[in-house]
Design brief:
The protein contains four helices and seven strands, in the order E-H-H-E-E-E-H-E-H-E-E. The protein has helices spanning about 10-30, 45-50, 90-105, 120-125, and strands at about 1-5, 50-60, 60-70, 75-80, 110-115, 130-140, 140-150.
Length: about 150
């Protein structure tokens, strides 16, 4: 089930962190970059986040989540993570599908990921995201920005 998460709640912030940290540790290995900012998060930074969190929950257990921000003309997917024990179960796909169809509707959506994160890039491409540009965020480390301009 997908539902909105209250990241201000300390227990929920802890659950978010318990999914986020192992997921981003796996991504760090995949893209060979330990500097992912979300690896520095703690319960307080999750509670202080202005992002909106939606989670994929099975039997009251958070398995993955998507966090986003909304601007005047667009949404930005800020985080999309699945606990490593739940990889390859379609959870990220379900979260993106829900977000595009139930929340973003016809607004532009932008997302960025490590340029070497092929699983994430391929997922976004299946939803019609198009490559926009590459940005060097650390010496010899690039992120790729994608946009989805289509009607979801």
């Amino acid at each position: 089930m997908i539902l909105k998460l209250d990241n201000k709640d300390k227990k929920m912030a802890n659950s978010i962190l318990n999914v986020q940290l192992p997921a981003y540790m796996e991504e760090a290995k995949l893209i060979n970059f330990e500097g992912i900012p979300q690896l520095k998060d703690n319960v307080e930074s999750i509670r202080d986040s202005k992002e909106v969190f939606i989670g994929y929950v099975i039997e009251h257990d958070l398995k993955g989540f998507l966090a986003y921000s909304e601007g005047d003309n667009e949404y930005q997917i800020c985080r999309l993570v699945v606990h490593p024990s739940c990889f390859k179960q379609g959870i990220a796909r379900k979260l993106v599908h829900y977000f595009l169809n139930e929340i973003a509707k016809k607004k532009k959506v932008i997302v960025s990921t490590g340029s070497d994160n092929l699983p994430a890039i391929n997922l976004y491409k299946t939803f019609g995201f198009k490559f926009h540009k590459k940005i060097e965020v650390a010496p010899n480390f690039f992120i790729s920005l994608f946009e989805n301009l289509s009607d979801h």
